[in-house]
Amino acid sequence: MLRAFSLLEILVALLVGASLMSVSGSLFGHVLVHRQNSDETRTAIAQDIALQLLAADVDNSIAGLEPKPAIEVNQLPQGGHRIALKKNTYVQGIVNITLHDIVWTFEPDRITRSVTGGTNPVIMAMGAFRSKITPIKKQAYHLRLDTQTGIKSIILWRKGGKL
Fold it and tell me: Which of 82, 129, 156, 162 has the fewest Cβ atoms within 10 angstroms?
């Protein structure tokens, strides 16, 4: 004997289906928000690591001989800054420590670091940046980085001597 679904059974099935769609839509929305927050956190961490590495590079740089300073700061034509310094580095597999030029660029969309002899600059952080570098009494620089997540500020100076 053929039996059809009653109106009540169809309404219950529609209600269960609508509830599942509502829950899955809400869950998908939460996943998107969580991913956006994790991307912002990852970008902020990459920026912090880049600034810490830059500070370490400046602190370990070789003092410049007069009249050449230990670090050179230039403004880039497309916006941003270029920081060049000399640093003793150890290359894996080579016994000697050699002097290399380290170049940092703060472009409007990324921060990069390159070493003389390297093939391509390493992208340290991505995002929208605006950098401002202010000299402080010929011995240090104040670097201010305006990002999407806030303002980051660091003092660049050599603890072992003058720049």
Answer: 162
Per-residue pLDDT tens over the stretch 52-88: 888 888 887 776 555 456 678 888 888 888 888 887 7
In whole angstroms, what is the distance from residue 52 CA to residue 10 CA?
63
Which runs of E-coded beta strand occur in the chain? 71-75, 81-90, 97-106, 110-115, 122-126, 130-136, 140-146, 151-157
Euclidean distance between CA atoms 35 and 1, whole angstroms = 54
Q: How far from each other are the two terminal CA atoms of the chain, in whole angstroms? A: 95
Structure token digits, residue 85 = 């310094």
The structural domains of the chain, with segments of one domain joined by +, span: 42-157
**Residues 83 and 72 sit within 8 Å (Cβ to Cβ):** yes
pLDDT at 128 over 70: yes
pLDDT tens-place string over residues 26-58: 888 888 888 877 888 888 888 889 888 888 888
Contact 144, 76 (CB under 8 A): no
Question: Any idea which residue has 């605006």 for tokens?
Answer: 130
Q: Amino acid letter at 22?
A: S
Q: Which pair of tokens denotes residue 150? A: 């806030």
Neighbours of 124 (CB within 10 A): 19
